[in-house]
Design brief:
Radius of gyration: 24 Å
Distance between the termini: 62 Å
Oligomer: single chain
Structural class: mainly alpha
Strand content: under 5%
Number of helices: 4
Number of strands: 0
CATH class of one domain: Mainly Alpha
CATH architecture of one domain: Up-down Bundle
Order of helices and strands: HHHH
Shape: flat
CATH topology of one domain: Methane Monooxygenase Hydroxylase, Chain G, domain 1
């Protein structure tokens, strides 16, 4: 039984050794020049806040919604396109409804101003 898993174990061992070696080489040979700017906390393009309960602009959330909408769109369109011959008209109608829902989400984001890069 071990013979069946031996190539996988060898591959995992080589991956672990290579990953550790590359990390160690980077750690040893990498430059270490810390300064105040590199060591300062960074969050969303803003300077660090004194109060962690400060409100964020709604555009951050709208950009996240846009990303999720288009990420889901691509994730569902590829398998649909591959199996279009098997799903037929029902699959086409289901995907059109799905695309319509995505268009509604995109229109919502557009009206909220998430696509404006001010």
């Amino acid at each position: 039984m071990l013979r069946q898993y031996l190539p996988i174990l060898i591959f995992m061992a080589l991956a672990a050794v290579l990953g550790t070696a590359l990390f160690a080489i980077g750690w040893v040979a990498g430059p270490r020049r810390p300064n105040a700017e590199k060591l300062s906390p960074y969050e969303c393009g803003f300077e660090a806040f004194e109060d962690s309960r400060m409100r964020f602009d709604v555009r951050y959330y709208l950009v996240a919604i846009i990303f999720i909408v288009f990420d889901l769109e691509i994730a569902f369109f590829f398998p649909w396109a591959v199996s279009l011959g098997a799903t037929g008209t029902f699959g086409l109608l289901a995907m059109l409804i799905f695309a319509l829902i995505l268009v509604v989400a995109l229109v919502y984001d557009y009206r909220k101003g998430a696509l404006e890069w001010d």
